[in-house]
Design goal:
Two copies of one chain form a homodimer. By secondary structure, chain A is α/β, with parallel strands linked by helices. Chain A has helices spanning about 45-55, 70-80, 100-110, 125-135, 135-155, 180-190, 205-220, 240-250, 270-280, 280-285, 295-305, 325, 365-375, 380-395, 400-415, 460-470, 515, 530-565; strands at about 25, 60-65, 90-95, 115-125, 165-170, 195-200, 230-235, 255, 360, 400, 420-430, 435-440, 450-455, 475-485, 490-500, 525-530.
């Protein structure tokens, strides 16, 4: 990243070191992406994704919406502390509505970062002003001016020099009266905002319209040349990438994107599509990013595994088939001259034929080398446990592939605290048989309990037997299994999602879900084993443990916050 | 469809009944879509999808590439016979390279349709001419002229009046020298082509470039105003929808699309995205289609089930979350005024809250009514078998949802010929146990065989036990399970894909795979049961039966073809 020239210490509200043709990448996977139904991530998962985003080279990480819940606050704060500390770390942003309570909370969360940013927003379309906020245009303009200034001033209050890094978004800009929009944006600049982000909140605009909106803002808003204009698009009509690129052509120099294009409804603009379009067509867009494209494939898999949101095979750039003609090249003479069909090389996004294939005879050193190659840095403890799992897998499979190893690491290392532990499982089922499961669990109190249950299938039987012991009411909202690699002896990766029932959903201390438009929390669990029945049991234990831990964590964070406020 | 005004009987090569602002929808799910790795469909599945496409209201169905294999030929012929017979049936198209053998074969396959079309193509970019075809520009021009004229003349030879309906595509048009491209297109028009299709073969162009390409053709090709200009885009950079819409704005009046955007690499343009963009923004595009949008959600599920290609939750229009704010509306006061966030209603694409919920006490009449509501027309036999499955499911689940019923119908009705039948299965597994499966199968000879095997997991054990009996060497290339509905008692849908090994892949009579750029055939299997282990066994039996039947069918078709040629 070329962010040496300026920085958080610059006395005027200028964006961090951006050359004329550099497009800043603002990743909102952890904020807008995490608002996808069921994508709830825990703090450790968010930290791991934030680290991967830093390796990818994004310029800004929007880490969350701190006022939404104590858990959200804590995640943003820890990302600021653990991923945002060095001079070339990404800027860490927190979202806030245009009011003091939200902005204070966002600042508390992001201020430990070397480059903190407050991102504040207010709707500017008449339809939102009338139906949602119930305020006049004058009131909207006043709040914008006051709250942007307030956000900018917080840095100085904390003894930092200059005005803070503040981004302002007029929500539903696409349907706002342009003249009023210009007024609001001019007020935000005057009050100190250094980035103006223009959202197509409902994914309704076309590339020509969105490009014209950006051009109109640049031409008509006093001071627009002193700030970064940013595009934030949604993919409801399949046009998010095209709209974002149209904005870049019209002069936008920040793009708000998510990995795999996750997000509410049809999702946000995909980071990988915008980055690779700019990369592949430099002479059309005359713009570039500082993204390390070779990290794209890996972070795509990581985000998919943690959020439990699969990537379809025909997804541009990161789908399993996106470069499929490569795999088929040997059967396919016609494709032998890559110039005829290939516009991107798989290596560019980090899909490489591994030179180091592991198997039965691979020792700890080879295993560790492979982990480093895959971008993991494990603690000695985690390395030991992962290596044991690897050796056990080698007994079952001749060749252990990279995705197998990624599945083991994700399964072994990033698991929630084990309040309840599965000690033993046995299952019998078949046609004409009653599927039956027997389980033995060790509880948080150290006591071992056993039970058995019938079910409509083996997984149902297991979950019912576990429920008899654990007694944490929930409903299973998703269940899926995929083989990690080809071949029937492959590792099967089970992803499930449960939603607590009986008042366990919204934890105390959370901002009312209604207010911020968020849904009931759900908890994902994953398990990876060559035995999909055992993997299903593990996935359920991991989701249950996550759900039970979240309740405890949420209470602890709330207590700590209350203490700090005294 | 407004196709009454003209038709195949028109003496001049005019497109079927198209008003100035009507965009014809040319669906290539069965041709370009089926070229997705692993998407191989059998003839019955292709017929079922073709019927659904006709109900959806597409104007042209590209049913296959008849010369590629006897199976492909047969599928196109049967779709022509069974889906293309009435005056308002879709046009049935078959693909052919620009040579007599291909064109003859395509015409044989499509001519039983009321409205047949030959779609012939030749590359026009220098890179393709030099490296792939190894011919000069002059030769390319000559072949275009001769082969289009030849294709047009076939209709007359068969006693039809007028010139046949012929579509011509210059492959890799986007990288062709514009002046040469204009010459080739003018020659195609002169020779009788009524549709000129412009492909962005490698998914490289931007909306502005592709729109300009179409506008350039309309301005510079003599006779362009007498033919339909068509757009065929690929999604490698995530721009297929935007490029296709740019073409429509530049005057293209046919769009080549696939359901769910399936296709090679990142896939083709999505039918649902283009149709809904035109539908949602009529004043921007000033164009419309005759698609019945309420069929979109259903056909999306059908194509996903048959091809085994999942749709990601954040896919525009047809993803599970695309309308997710609808589901969350009760927890989400902010969304109560739909005007603030909703640009499309879920009902428009056929997502409806069913009024008719089935369960234990539902009789045959209610079940049949539900099937009709879902768009199925089953034979009495199929109805009986499906009803039995439904009653069995009711014993296990309180509420049987629409997706449950769709899973049963797909599982029960559209299964391959059962050469081998699973009679009994029993499995035991767990932690510290050796997963063991026992199977009993009835063979094509009526003899019952039993065997058992150990495996790395229960599915591996089952497949190994079955392999001991069936002895059809194959490798499992994909394995996935998803719960059809929420709740742990849900039906689990297993999709697998196998690839024959040991010389079973390309059947005799197939055009060399290399020549047409196709891959080794793979066979998908699906099984739906509340017991995922039983469902996995069924899925494997269905894939094996498909693989074994394909070999037999292929031999039979080849014999029949050889007979007909005498």
């Amino acid at each position: 990243m070329s962010d040496k020239a300026s920085g958080a210490h610059t006395p005027t509200p200028a964006p961090r070191g951006q050359a004329g043709d550099e497009v800043l990448v603002f990743d909102t996977t952890l904020r807008d992406g995490e608002q996808s139904p069921g994508a709830t991530l825990n703090i450790d998962e968010k930290l791991e994704i934030a680290r991967a985003l830093a390796r990818l080279g994004v310029n800004i990480i929007e880490a969350g919406f701190p006022i939404a819940s104590p858990g959200d606050f804590e995640a943003v704060r820890r990302i600021a502390l653990e991923v945002g500390q060095s001079e070339d770390s990404p800027t860490i942003a927190g979202l806030a509505r245009a009011n003091k309570a939200d902005i204070d909370r966002a600042w508390e969360a992001v201020k430990p970062a070397r480059h903190p940013r407050i991102h504040t927003f207010i709707a500017t379309s008449d339809i939102h002003l009338q139906h949602k906020l119930r305020i006049s245009r004058e009131e909207c303009l006043k709040r914008t001016r006051e709250m942007v200034a307030y956000a900018c001033g917080l840095a100085a209050l904390d003894g930092r020099s200059g005005c803070g890094d503040v981004e302002f978004s007029p929500e539903d800009a696409g349907r706002s009266d342009p003249e009023f929009l210009y007024q609001v944006l001019a007020a935000a600049i005057e009050a100190g905002a250094s980035t103006l982000n223009i959202p197509d909140t409902v994914g309704y605009t076309t590339p020509a319209e969105f490009g014209a909106l950006i051009a109109g803002i640049r031409a008509n808003v006093p001071g627009a040349d002193r700030v970064v204009i940013s595009a934030h698009c949604h993919d409801d009509l399949g046009l998010a990438t095209a709209n974002t690129l149209a904005a870049v052509q019209a002069g936008a120099r920040q793009v708000e994107v998510t990995i795999n294009g996750i997000g509410e409804r049809a999702g946000n603009t995909s980071l990988e599509e915008v980055v690779m379009a700019l990369h592949t067509r430099p002479h059309v867009y005359n713009a570039h990013t500082t993204i390390d494209t070779t990290q794209i494939a890996r972070i795509s898999r990581l985000v998919s595994a943690y959020t439990g949101i699969p990537v379809q095979p025909n997804k541009a750039i990161v789908g399993a088939n996106a470069f499929a003609h490569e795999a088929g090249i040997h059967q396919d003479g016609m494709l032998k001259n890559p110039l005829t069909y290939e516009i991107m090389q798989p290596e560019t996004i980090g899909i490489t034929e591994s030179k180091l294939v592991l198997g039965k005879h691979s020792g700890r050193h080879a295993f560790q080398t492979k982990l480093t190659e895959l971008g993991y840095e494990l603690s000695p403890d985690d390395l030991n446990r992962t290596f044991e799992r690897f050796k056990a897998l080698c007994d079952k499979k001749k060749i252990v592939s990279d995705p197998d190893i990624e599945a083991i690491v994700n399964d072994e290392v990033y698991q929630p605290v084990e309040l309840w532990r599965l000690q033993h499982l046995q299952v019998s089922c078949g046609t004409g048989l009653l599927p039956t499961a027997t389980v033995r669990l060790r509880g948080p109190d150290g006591i071992v309990r056993e039970d058995a249950a019938l079910g409509t299938g083996p997984v149902d039987a297991i979950y019912k037997a576990i429920n008899r012991i654990v007694q944490a009411p929930n409903v299973l909202t998703e269940f899926s299994i995929t083989a990690v690699t080809e071949g029937i002896d492959a590792v099967g990766e089970v992803t499930i999602r449960v939603e607590p029932t009986g008042g366990n959903g919204a934890h105390e201390g959370d901002l009312s879900l209604t207010q911020v438009g968020m849904r009931q929390r759900t908890y994902s669990g994953h398990g990876a084993e060559t035995d999909i029945i055992v993997a299903s049991a593990k996935a359920y234990m991991s989701a249950l443990n996550k759900m039970l831990t979240a309740k405890i964590e949420s209470q602890q964070v709330a207590e700590r916050t209350a203490m700090a406020a005294k």
